[in-house]
Structure formats: C-alpha cells, structure tokens
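Worked example

This section walks through a single chain of length 396. The input is the sequence exactly as stored; nothing has been trimmed or padded.
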Amino acid sequence: MSAMQRSTKSHPRKPGSQSALRHLNQQRIIECLLNGPSTQAELSRQTGLSTATVSNIVKIMQDAGLVSTEPTTSSGRRATNVRLNSNGAVAVGIDFGRRHLRVVLASLGYHVIAEDFIELPLGHQAEEGIAAAVRLLGRLLEQNGIDPTAVVGAGAGIPGPIDRRTGTVAQGAILPEWVGIDILHRLEEALNCPVFVDNDANLGALSEVTWGPHSGVPNLMFLKIGSGIGAGLILNGAPYYGNVGITGEIGHATIHEHGLVCRCGNRGCLETIASTTTMIELLGRGQETLLTPQDIVRNCLAGDSATQRVVDDAGLAVGRALGNVSNLINPEVIVVGGPLAGLGTLLLDPIRRGLVRHAVPVVGETTHLAMSSLGARAEALGAAALVFQHAGITGR
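Given that input, the structure is written out below as tokens.
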C-alpha cells in the first residue's frame, strides 16, 4: 500500500532533533532487515548511512533486544551480521470493547506471537479497562519470555470516535464512561511505551489491508456490527479520517424516520435496527437469561426461525445504508466484521440484497461484499499495524 496517514499518536518529535533523526535511521535499518539478515556494511550501502552511524544504531538496537549480531565474513573480510530478533521487537495491539478486552503481541514481520482475551464488566470505567490491559499484557510478556523493553509501541482501538485534535474519546462512543478521557495520555503512562489510538472500525479496515487478504485494494470499507455499528474507510490507499477524525458513523444513518430513539438523540438510526444490542432485546423477550452475540450466531445457524428473521431484517437495513454509502464513495470491497461474522452467508445474503436494491445498479453489481477472515482479532491486529506504520513497515 501507499504511505498512510497515521492515527493519533504519542511522543511527537521535533523533525530536526537528534532523537528524531536516530529514530528515522533506526526504522530505515529495520526496513532493510525485514528482507533478511545483513552485514553492517550492507546496511550502510542500502541506507546511505555511514558505517559508524550504522554501528552505533545497531549497538542501541542490540541493547534494546531488537537485533542480534554475529561475526561473519564478507568478501574475505571479517564483518558483523545483523538480524532482527523474532520476538525481540514486539508490537502490541489492544482492542477495548464494551464487554471485552483483547491483547495481541506481534513481531515486526507481521506474525502473531501471542494473544489473549478476557471479559470486562458492562459499563466499566476507563481506568478499569486500562488496568486490565496492563495486567493482560504483562502476563503475555511473561508467559512468552519477552522483556518489556522489547515493546516498541502499542496500538489501541476504542469503540467510538476519537477526536484527532485532542486524542480524547468523543461523544457517541459505545463506552460513554470513556467520553472526554485523554486515552492516549492515560495509556502512555500505564504502558510506558509509545501509544497509538484509533477507532476500532478504522483498525478493522487497516487490518484487512495489512493482515487480511485485501492488501492490494485501494478503496475498502470495513463494517463492524456489534453493540454499535461503525465503519472504517480506506480511500485511495490511505485511511480516511475527515476533518477531526469523526468518520464512518454509519450506525447513525436514518433508516426509519419515525423509528426508535437512538442513543445519539435521533430516531430510527441503523443501530436501533441492526446492532447486536437490538437483536438481543428482540430475541430475549420472555427469557430468563440474557442472550449473547454468540447465542445469536449459534441459534441462527441451528435454524431458529425467530433468530433468522431478526438477522435477515438487520441485514436488509445494513444493506440499505451501505447502498447509500456505496453510491457516494464507490468502494471496491466491503468487509463485514464483528461478533456476528460467524453467520457467514446468513448475514451477507440479506446485506447484499439491501445493497443491490439501494445502490446504483453498476455500483451494486461491482462492489464485492465479504465477511472478515480475521474474526474477533481484526481490531487488535489493526492496532498492532498502527505500530508497524509508525516504524515505517507497511508489508509482510
């Protein structure tokens, strides 16, 4: 992919400072080493840096556990071979959900080292979620024998809009308890490493064009259907953030003008029809135990007629909203993710019917609709990809 606009990030550097120059040079060396081990002399030729500069940066990277060195010979002369450590340089991806937390550890070669998932209480406070992330990350690092100094950065996804001017969670988040929180600063203090924050749907889109099968797609939309409904956009090969970062709020597109009042204050929004929260409310009437999205998937696949009807109605409504968006931006691919991804064609088929019905014929016919192959880990993988982007690493 082409160079992407980076998300809200910490540790701004002065372009001309020594630390910024050293950081840039380090990333140039990392990019070279992603293609395999190289001698310091080869790194000097590839990067245009002096041998002394390469030697100094390699020493810093070795002390940080990013690389390992070994003596070798090159053209009959003694040389130092440098290789990236498989687990030495680690990117962290964190997905904060309304009821869950997922943490992924990934190497700079786009390989998942480890991951874990825990449930969070509904309505949890930001500090509670952050503390849980710190504990889960610490456990993963310890279990896999990774020194915390090997973490080069952490990306985090939040189920709600992020104001890119301030780095705060904006009004409209599925986690209202987090609204107004300077999540970037809080995470940076807690994790003690560079932090990058974005909306979870944006990270879903990023994961599809980095980790997923759509790396060559310049115009892609990722639709996450969960407690809320949001979309991430890749336009002309780069994430699209709009003016202040509040984009992809397709869950608040009006479907029924006189429908239910939405949490945003409007009536008949897509979320009031097609979110998992609405589905659970419709299907849970008269039941003693609260349904989960996993119950919806299981019951629908088992042929429960009520569940299938609710899923079909939701899919048609989603397709209608996607038709309007597709008429505007004409994406090549729309990927559907979230906890209902296991429904496969049972959800995709009604979405496709709604899309074809409400889009301009040629747009509906040429827009490829797919279910995410990354499942529940898509957002966390996208968060790790934010770290890769910051390191200047855009491919596997």
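What to look for: The radius of gyration is 23 Å.
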